[in-house]
Amino acid sequence: MLVKKFKLGFGTALLAAVLASNMAYAQEKSVAITAIVEHPALDSVRDGVIEALEKNGYVKGKNLDLDYQSAQGNTGTAAQIARQFIGDKPDAIVAIATPSAQAVVAATKQIPVVYSAVTDPVAAQLVSTVEASGTNVTGVSDVLELEKQVDLIKRVVPNAKKVGMVYNPGEANSAVVVKRLKTLLPMEGMELVEASAPRSVDVGSAARSLIGKVDVIYTNTDNNVVSAYEALVKVGNEADIPLIASDTDSVKRGAIAALGINYKDLGIQTGEIVARILNGEDPGTIPSQTSSKLELYVNPAAAKNQGIELPEELLKSAAVVVE
């Protein structure tokens, strides 16, 4: 009788162990993350995605296989990474920034794709609508109200008439911003002066081409520009040209001010969508999202370096004053 009891207990334990093993195996998921380049804003998005996945029970090394690759600013490399990821067949791909998102979306119609830090996903042809797309693609946009950006330029440089913008004309999100600014700035008595930087190494020379032609330089979340922002700061400091950014991390690197999104929060928002997909939701039923939470960063030392004295009201209204 004692032996019989022992056998039954052993069999039950063995069965429970097998079931637990199968359940653990079933819960294992794989996520691939790619970004067009590494810079503080996009790195924050990646970190936010990983944090959100962990909060939802998906932990790298336990039940999550996580692969991250950067294209180092090269669109050809972005396409190669996309093809590799498609071959790996992960449960979801996170594509950070427009060029990487375009590469991944062009490569698959089956694997769920969640884009992040894309200004205009419709113009970039990632989705046909910001409503539920009915496809394998959804995500989170970092689009900003440009009216508020123009207002910030006026608050920092009240007498500005000519606004310079260094950008990559081949990046869809930047082309959208330029087109919109050409409409908005004349309404405020200002004019846009463009300087092309197709590669990160072109940012410094593009900025120098604006010396004597502009009263201020505004930068959007153009990946070439943000990845080489120090080159822009060097020109701004040497030529006394105020720099206004839309990426708050650029303020820490030498811009005077930025009214922008917290990219870590954007990444967390993105990661929540990824978790929903890993839990079984169809990406085609999830509408694209945006972030409405904006933060004002100011850098008084940068203002001094670029010949500007910041008004007290601007300093008081800032969420973060960079010392």
UniProtKB/TrEMBL annotation:
The keyword Transmembrane helix does not apply. InterPro entries: ABC_transpt-TYRBP-like (IPR007487), Peripla_BP_I (IPR028082). Keywords: Signal. Residues 1-26 form the signal peptide. The keyword Oxidoreductase does not apply. This is ABC transporter substrate-binding protein. It holds the Pfam family ABC_sub_bind. The lineage of its organism: Bacteria, Pseudomonadati, Pseudomonadota, Betaproteobacteria, Burkholderiales. It comes from Advenella alkanexedens.
